[in-house]
Amino acid sequence: MRGSCLCGDIQFEVTGRPARFGFDHCSRCRKSSGSAFATWMICSAKDFRFTRGGESVKVFELPVHENPPGYGRAFCARCGGPVPLHRGDSVGIPAGTLDDDPGTRPRGHTFVELKAPWFEITDSLPQFARQAGG
After folding, report:
1. pLDDT tier, 79 (very low <50, low <70, confident <90, very high otherwise)
2. What is the b/e burial string over 36-45, where b = at least 16 CB atoms within 10 angstroms of the residue's CB?
3. CA 71 to chain centre
4. pLDDT score, position 63
5. Nearest to 11 by CA among 23, 19, 2
6. Is residue 15 part of a domain?
7. pTM over 0.85
8. In the sheet that 11-14 helps form, which strands lie side by side, from edge to edge?
9. Which residues form the domain of 60?
């Protein structure tokens, strides 16, 4: 599957299936996305590559809140749009940056205890007070 930033300067592709795909309701994801939650697809770093503009990726790193690592937000230096973020052996992909149908759907909600008070979860996906295992 392929994806890109808002202006298209950064493009990427993913081979293989994602390890996780879900909605993150933590306060940092809400602030970063400007919405009730962020939708993340996590894949193996070996299945990911930037096909264009990888040098334009900038990262803003917040300090550790409770447990390492801190909170990183990757974005395009030109448009400021979100882009995938490398974290060791995995890559977090903001699902809204995908240009293709990933062929899978979100599997749950994490950090539900921190969700926005004005948002109600109405689907039947599993909900985790904190982070789902695995």
Report:
1. very high
2. ebbbbbebee
3. 11
4. 75
5. 2
6. yes
7. yes
8. 2-4, 11-14, 48-52
9. 2-20+38-105
CATH of residue 63's domain is 2.170.150.70
Residue 43 lies in a domain: yes
Helices and strands: H and E segment counts in the chain: 1, 10
Using CA atoms, how far apart are residues 44 and 88, in angstroms rounded to an integer? 9
Q: Cβ atoms within 10 A of the Cβ of 3, count?
A: 23
Tell me, yes or no, whether 116 lies in a domain.
no
What distance in Å separates the CA atoms of residue 66 and residue 42, rounded to the nearest whole number?
21
Domain count, the chain: 1
What distance, in Å, lies between the first and last C-alpha atoms of the chain? 23
Q: Using CA of residue 68, residue 134, residue 91, residue 60, what is the dihedral sign?
A: negative
Q: Could you tell me if residue 130 is inside a domain? A: no
CA 117 to chain centre: 22
Which ranges in 12-124 belong to alpha helices (H)? 27-33
